[in-house]
Design a protein that fits this description.
This protein is an alpha/beta fold. The chain has a single domain, classed as Vaccinia Virus protein VP39 (Rossmann fold). The protein contains 9 helices and 7 strands; from the N terminus they run αααβαβαβαβαβαββα. Strands 3-2-1-4-5-7-6 form a 7-stranded mixed β-sheet, with helices on both faces. Helix 1 runs parallel beside helix 3, helix 2 runs antiparallel to helix 5 and helix 3 packs across helix 4. The chain is globular. The mean pLDDT is 93.
Length: 247
């Protein structure tokens, strides 16, 4: 089912706000994604947001809000705790050069993501880099040598407080790479992140407050640069970072 003219324009204007011009094919990919999101949401809980306009603004355009911090080149990016694919899949649709790994701990969500990748045809074209899914916990994959310090960028959207997120995400990031934390309007957790940053080898280089287009919804994008290796004892065993955060 094609988006109506107003919704198509909303999506295109949202992308343009963050420096991207969407092709007809990309609009079509977002349409397929939204239809599958609504369809699967009847079976498994993927999102509380169900209206088309709200999905476009609060999921698709919100995911695009970090595009200005990502170079238009073949970078390796991991989306930690991707859930229904945000921000990873919108980033892939709008920036096909990215090589993206979607990590989630729930197998049902991984099955949904794999269907989106195939149905929306966002992988496997010659000019595009890969997008793949992995099922598991950040603590386990962050210690796995195939994933540890192998990514230029890690991203996470509303997964946990920043000290916990840092332990989940920084182990994946190469030295001189970045972790982009997509947060709400509350900034209190930033003040208690100094210890985690110091231990894990990260430094906040920018906190940018933004407002989603066509709304008064405030967001904070936190850019953390990895300046040295994360000690091998981190991340700690599954469940430990959230129970005993580094604060």
């Amino acid at each position: 089912m094609a988006l109506d003219k107003e919704l198509t324009q909303l999506l295109a204007e949202g992308a343009a706000h963050y420096g991207k011009e969407l092709s007809g094919q990309q609009i079509s990919q977002f349409e397929t994604y939204m239809e599958l999101l609504k369809e699967w949401n009847q079976k498994i809980n993927l999102t509380a947001i169900e209206e088309d306009r709200e999905i476009i603004i609060k999921h698709f355009i919100d995911s695009m809000s970090i595009l200005p911090y990502i170079k238009n080149e073949k970078l390796k990016l991991i989306d930690v705790g991707t859930g229904a694919g945000f921000p990873g899949i919108p980033l892939k649709i709008t920036n096909p050069m990215l090589e993206i790994t979607l990590l989630d701990s729930l197998d049902k969500r991984i099955k949904f993501l794999n269907e989106v990748i195939i149905a929306a045809n966002i992988s496997g074209q010659k000019e595009m880099s890969e997008i793949k899914t992995i099922h598991g916990r950040a603590e386990d994959y962050g210690a796995n040598h195939q994933h540890r310090e192998k990514y230029d960028i890690a991203v996470a959207r509303a997964v946990a407080n920043l000290p916990v997120l840092l332990e989940y995400c920084l182990p994946f990031v190469k030295i001189n790479g970045i972790f982009i934390a997509m947060k709400g309007s509350n900034t209190e957790e930033f003040d208690v992140s100094a210890k985690a940053l110091d231990i894990l080898g990260g430094k906040i280089v920018k906190i940018e407050k933004l407002e989603l287009p066509k709304t008064n919804i405030e967001r904070n994008v936190v850019i953390i640069k990895k300046f040295r290796q994360t000690p091998t004892k981190y991340p700690r065993k599954a469940g430990k970072p959230s129970k005993e955060p580094l604060i």
